[in-house]
C-alpha cells in the first residue's frame, strides 16, 4: 500500500510538470485511491532521492524519480488502452481501473498486455482522450482510423477504404453536420451519424 | 463469347460500353447510374461477342442490390471474360475490386481509363510492371477522347488471362482458409466467401461459423473488416509499385466553393433557381413559336381543305392533338430534360446532396435523396427507379411519396403552359410554393408515422466535369424519344376518339355525373374535370385533353383565371400517371402504392376545394 501512494505522488508530479505546472504539497490533494498524501510518504520519497524541493518549496522529480514515474505512467496508458479499446469500458471507468492496477501489475504481465494492445493497432497515448469519433474532428485535420462500428450489415464504408490504420483527411465539415472525407484520393460525403461510428485518432 | 464490363461507379464504364456497342446507356456523373443490366452484341471477325455492362460497384462482397446482382453474375459463370475498368487516377481504390474479382479466378484484362486525366495530375502508371505483378494484360484507354477503345475487345478476346494474385491475409484468416480446406475440402475462394457469410450455400457458411466467431472475438472486428483491410493494404502495395508522381501539380479547385457552408448554399440556390427559370423562359419562347406556327400556317392550311361532317371532326382532332402535344407540352419537356441532363452530367447533384443532408434528416432522409428528387422534376418514373440509391425501406417510402408529389415536366407543362401563359408568372410560381409545402409536410408526416431504421449518407463525390454538349443532347434525345414516338401518337389517337365521341354528343353523361360535383366542389367546368382524369395516362395530357374538349388551345376563352389556376394546382397533385404507379409498385410494393396514390388523390381534391373556397 505504501508503494501505491508514493508511486501515485510521483505520477501526479510528472503529469503536472508535463503540462507546465508546479506542485506544492498542498496541491497534491487526495490521490486517486482517496487517501491523502501524507508527510510521511513525501519524506520517504525525498529520502529515496526520488524527489527534491526547489527554492519555492515546490516538489520536483529527480532523474531517478522521473524514470520511475514514467514507468508507472506507461503502465497506466497500456491498461487504459486495454480497458477502453479492447474491453470497451467508458473512459472514466477505464481510467479508474487503470489507476488501481498500475501499481500492482508486474512487468511481465504488462509487457504481454502491451503486445495485445499494439497488435490491435491501438495507439497507446498520453492522453485519455486519444480516441475521438470522426464527427468530433475539425475541418482540415489529417487523422488515422482506429476502428469502425459496423452498422447492421453495412459494408460500404470498408469497401470505400475506411479501414483501421488508414489516414484520412477532413476536407469539409458543415456546421455540426455532414462531412467530406478524402480517402484513398477520393472524396466521400458522409452524414454525422455515420461519422460517429468511426473512431479515429488525430495525427501529430 | 460473353464479355462483362466490371468496375467502380463513375469510372467511365458505361461510356466505354456505349462506344463499344453503340447502345444508348445513360451515363451520369453520380455513383450508381446503371441499375439494370445492359447487353450489347458486336462482331469480332466471325465471332459474335455479347457484352454485359455490370452495374458499377465498390465491392463484390457488398449487400446493396447492385453488388448482390454482380456477385450472382460472377458466381453463375455466365460470363467468359471480364474487362475490369479502373480509374487510373485512383488506382489503389480501384484495384480493391479487381483483387476481389481475381480471387474468383476468372479470365480478365485490365483497362486503365482516364489516362488523359493522369497526365494532367503529373502521375504515371507503369503498365508493364502492373502486368507482371497481376498477370493479366493492361491497356491504357481514355473513354473521353476515344483513345485505344477499339483495342479493348480484341485484347480481351485474345489475351485475357486468369489473374495471378493471392492476397496475403492476416494469419488467423489464412489458418481458417487452410482448415476449411483440410476439413471439408473447400477451395480458397469459397472458403473466403464462407468466412464472409456470402457463400450461396448456407450449409457451407455454417461450417465456417466456429472459425468466423473465433477470429472476430480475437480481433473485436468483423471478418469483413479484417479481410477488407487486408485487401486494401494489398491493393495499396501494388499501386505503390507501379505509380509514379512525376511532378506536383496544384489544381485549382472550384469545388470548395460549392461545398462551403456560405457560398455552397448561394450556388445551390443560384444553380437550381437559375436553371429552372432558364427552362421556363426558353420553354415559353419555343411554346409561343410553335403555337404561332400552328395558328398562322397549319390551321389555315387545314381549313383550306374544306372537309365536312365527321371527317372534319377527325381532322380537327388530329390537328388539336398535334397542337397540344407539340405546341403546349413539347417545349417544356424539352427544356426540362435538357436541364436535368445538364445537372446530372456535371456531377453537381452530389454536392447538392452533401449540402442538403442535414436538412433532409428532419424528414427521415439524407442527402442522397436529393438525386431522385431533382430527377423527379424531369420525370417521376426514373426518379422512383433512382430510389435504389437509398438503402432503407423507410427512406425509400418517404422519398417515394416526395417524388410522387414533385412536379414533373408533365405537370410543369400544365403550370407553365396554362397558368404562366394565361394568368401570370407569379401565380405559376405560387403553385410551386404550395406544392413544396405539401411535399415537406407529407414527408414529415410519413417520417413520424412509419418505423424503421435510419442510416446516414455515404456518397462518393466524383470530380466535377464540364458536361459535353453532344452527351447532353444525345441523352435528352433518348429521353424525348418516348414522348415523341409513344406519347404524341397516343395523344393523337385519344384526340380522334374524343373527337368522334363529341361528334356523336357522347359526353352528356359526363355532364350529368361529374358536372355537379366538379362545379360545386372544385369550381371547374365538367370538361376540365374530365381532362384531369385523363392525366392518369400522362400528366401533361390534362392540358392537351382540356384543349381538345374545349375545342381550342386558347383556354382563357373558356375558363376564368381562377379556374385555370385551380386546374393546374389540382393536376399537380391528384392522380399520379400510370407509369409512375407501375414503377412505384415495383419499388415499394402494392400496399404503399395504394396508400400513396390514395393520399395524393385525396390531397388533390381537398386542396382544390380549399383554394376554391379561399380564392
Quaternary structure: heterodimer
Please report the number of helical segments of chain B.
27
**Major pleated sheet of chain A:** 6 strands, antiparallel
Strand adjacency order, main sheet of chain B: 2-3-1-4-5-7
Number of strands of chain A: 8
Q: CATH H level of the largest domain in chain A: which superfamily? A: Winged helix-like DNA-binding domain superfamily/Winged helix DNA-binding domain
Please tell me how large the radius of gyration of chain B is: 28 Å
What would the CATH topology of the largest domain in chain A be?
Arc Repressor Mutant, subunit A
Give the low-pLDDT segments of chain A. none
Structural class of chain B: alpha/beta
- Distance separating the two termini of chain A: 38 Å
- Overall number of strands of chain B: 9
Principal-axis shape of chain A equals elongated
Q: pLDDT average of chain A, as an integer? A: 79
CATH class of the largest domain in chain A reads Mainly Alpha
Helix content of chain B: 55-70%
- Poorly predicted regions of chain B are none
What's the architecture of the largest domain in chain A, going by CATH? Orthogonal Bundle
Task: Walk me through the structure.
The complex is a heterodimer of chains A (204) and B (615). Chain A is α+β, with helices and mostly antiparallel strands. Chain A is built from 8 helices and 8 strands; from the N terminus they run αααββαααββαβββαβ. A 6-stranded antiparallel beta sheet of chain A has the order 3-8-4-5-6-7. Chain A folds into 2 domains: 126 residues, Winged helix-like DNA-binding domain superfamily/Winged helix DNA-binding domain (Arc Repressor Mutant, subunit A, Orthogonal Bundle); 72 residues, Ferrous iron transport protein A (FeoA) (SH3 type barrels, Roll). The mean pLDDT of chain A is 79. In chain A, helix 1 packs across helix 3, helix 4 crosses helix 5 and helix 4 packs across helix 6. With 615 residues, chain B is of the alpha/beta class. Chain B contains 27 helices and 9 strands. In chain B, helix 3 links the parallel strand 4 and strand 5. Chains A and B meet through helix 7, strand 7 and helix 8 of A and helix 3, helix 10, helix 14 and strand 9 of B.
Amino acid at each position: 500500500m505504501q508503494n501505491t501512494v508514493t508511486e501515485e505522488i510521483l505520477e501526479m508530479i510528472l503529469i503536472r510538470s508535463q503540462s507546465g505546472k508546479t506542485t506544492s504539497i498542498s496541491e497534491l490533494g487526495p490521490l486517486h485511491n482517496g487517501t491523502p498524501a501524507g508527510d510521511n510518504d513525501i519524506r520517504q520519497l525525498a529520502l529515496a532521492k526520488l524527489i527534491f524541493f526547489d527554492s519555492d518549496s515546490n516538489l520536483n522529480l529527480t532523474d531517478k524519480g522521473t524514470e520511475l514515474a514514467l514507468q508507472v505512467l506507461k503502465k497506466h496508458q497500456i491498461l487504459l488502452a486495454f480497458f477502453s479499446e479492447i474491453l470497451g469500458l467508458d473512459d472514466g471507468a477505464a481510467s479508474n481501473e487503470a489507476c488501481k492496477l498500475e501499481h500492482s501489475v508486474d512487468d511481465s504481465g504488462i509487457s504481454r498486455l502491451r503486445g495485445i494492445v499494439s497488435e490491435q493497432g491501438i495507439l497507446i497515448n498520453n492522453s485519455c482522450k486519444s480516441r475521438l469519433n470522426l464527427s468530433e474532428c475539425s475541418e482540415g485535420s489529417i487523422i488515422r482510423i482506429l476502428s469502425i462500428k459496423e452498422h447492421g450489415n453495412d459494408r460500404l464504408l470498408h469497401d470505400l477504404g475506411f479501414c483501421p490504420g488508414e489516414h484520412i483527411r477532413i476536407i469539409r465539415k458543415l456546421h455540426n453536420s455532414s462531412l467530406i472525407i478524402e480517402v484513398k484520393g477520393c472524396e466521400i460525403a458522409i452524414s454525422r451519424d455515420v461519422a460517429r461510428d468511426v473512431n479515429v485518432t488525430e495525427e501529430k | 463469347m460473353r464479355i462483362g464490363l466490371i468496375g467502380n461507379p463513375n469510372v467511365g464504364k458505361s461510356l466505354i460500353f456505349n462506344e463499344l456497342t453503340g447502345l444508348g446507356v445513360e451515363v451520369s456523373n453520380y455513383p450508381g447510374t446503371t441499375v439494370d443490366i445492359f447487353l450489347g452484341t458486336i462482331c469480332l471477325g466471325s465471332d459474335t461477342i455479347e457484352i454485359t455492362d455490370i452495374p458499377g460497384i465498390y465491392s463484390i462482397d457488398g449487400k446493396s442490390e447492385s453488388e448482390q446482382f454482380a456477385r450472382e453474375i460472377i458466381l453463375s459463370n455466365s460470363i467468359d471474360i471480364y474487362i475490369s475498368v479502373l480509374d487510373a487516377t485512383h488506382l489503389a481504390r480501384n484495384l480493391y475490386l479487381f483483387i476481389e474479382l481475381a480471387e474468383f479466378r476468372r479470365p480478365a484484362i485490365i483497362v486503365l481509363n482516364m489516362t488523359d486525366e493522369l497526365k494532367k495530375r503529373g502521375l504515371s502508371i507503369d503498365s508493364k510492371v502492373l502486368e507482371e505483378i497481376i498477370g493479366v494484360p493492361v491497356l491504357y484507354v481514355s473513354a473521353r477522347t476515344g483513345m485505344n477503345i477499339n483495342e479493348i475487345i480484341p485484347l480481351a478476346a485474345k489475351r485475357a488471362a486468369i489473374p495471378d494474385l493471392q492476397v496475403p491475409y492476416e494469419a488467423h484468416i489464412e489458418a481458417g482458409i487452410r482448415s476449411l480446406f483440410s476439413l471439408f475440402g473447400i477451395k480458397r475462394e469459397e472458403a473466403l466467401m464462407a468466412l464472409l457469410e456470402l457463400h450461396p450455400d448456407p450449409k457451407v457458411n455454417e461450417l465456417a461459423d466456429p472459425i468466423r466467431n473465433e477470429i472476430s472475438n480475437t480481433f473485436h472486428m468483423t471478418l469483413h473488416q479484417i479481410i477488407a483491410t487486408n485487401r486494401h493494404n494489398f491493393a495499396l502495395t501494388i499501386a505503390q509499385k507501379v505509380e509514379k508522381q512525376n511532378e506536383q501539380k496544384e489544381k485549382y479547385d472550384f469545388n470548395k466553393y460549392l461545398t462551403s457552408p456560405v457560398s455552397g448554399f448561394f450556388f445551390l440556390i443560384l444553380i437550381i433557381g437559375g436553371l429552372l427559370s432558364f427552362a421556363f423562359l426558353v420553354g415559353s419562347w419555343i411554346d409561343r413559336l410553335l403555337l404561332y406556327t400552328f395558328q398562322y400556317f397549319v390551321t389555315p392550311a387545314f381549313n383550306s381543305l374544306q372537309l365536312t361532317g365527321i371527317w372534319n371532326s377527325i381532322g380537327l382532332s388530329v390537328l388539336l392533338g398535334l397542337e397540344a402535344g407539340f405546341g403546349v407540352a413539347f417545349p417544356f419537356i424539352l427544356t426540362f430534360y435538357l436541364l436535368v441532363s445538364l445537372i446530372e452530367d456535371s456531377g453537381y447533384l452530389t454536392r447538392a446532396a452533401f449540402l442538403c443532408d442535414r436538412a433532409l434528416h428532419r424528414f427521415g432522409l439524407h442527402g442522397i435523396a436529393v438525386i431522385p428528387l431533382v430527377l423527379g422534376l424531369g420525370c417521376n418514373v426514373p426518379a422512383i427507379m433512382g430510389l435504389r440509391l437509398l438503402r432503407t425501406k423507410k427512406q425509400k417510402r418517404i422519398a417515394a411519396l416526395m417524388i410522387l408529389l414533385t412536379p414533373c415536366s408533365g405537370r410543369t407543362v400544365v403550370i407553365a403552359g396554362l397558368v404562366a401563359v394565361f394568368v401570370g408568372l407569379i401565380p405559376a410560381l405560387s403553385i410551386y410554393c404550395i406544392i413544396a409545402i405539401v411535399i415537406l409536410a407529407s414527408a414529415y408526416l410519413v417520417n413520424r408515422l412509419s418505423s424503421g431504421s435510419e442510416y446516414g449518407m455515404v456518397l462518393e463525390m466524383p470530380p466535377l466535369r464540364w458536361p459535353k454538349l453532344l452527351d447532353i443532347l444525345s441523352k435528352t434525345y433518348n429521353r424525348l424519344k418516348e414522348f415523341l414516338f409513344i406519347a404524341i401518337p397516343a395523344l393523337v389517337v385519344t384526340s380522334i376518339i374524343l373527337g368522334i365521341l363529341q361528334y356523336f354528343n357522347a359526353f352528356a353523361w359526363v355532364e350529368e355525373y361529374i358536372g355537379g360535383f366538379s362545379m360545386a366542389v372544385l369550381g371547374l367546368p365538367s370538361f376540365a374535370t374530365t381532362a384531369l382524369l385523363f392525366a392518369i395516362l400522362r400528366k401533361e395530357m390534362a392540358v392537351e385533353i382540356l384543349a381538345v374538349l374545349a375545342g381550342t388551345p386558347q383556354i382563357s376563352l373558356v375558363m376564368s383565371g381562377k379556374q385555370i389556376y385551380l386546374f393546374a394546382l389540382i393536376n399537380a397533385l391528384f392522380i399520379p400517371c400510370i407509369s409512375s404507379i407501375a414503377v412505384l409498385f415495383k419499388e415499394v410494393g402494392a400496399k404503399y402504392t395504394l396508400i400513396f396514390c390514395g393520399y395524393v388523390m385525396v390531397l388533390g381534391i381537398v386542396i382544390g376545394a380549399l383554394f376554391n373556397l379561399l380564392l
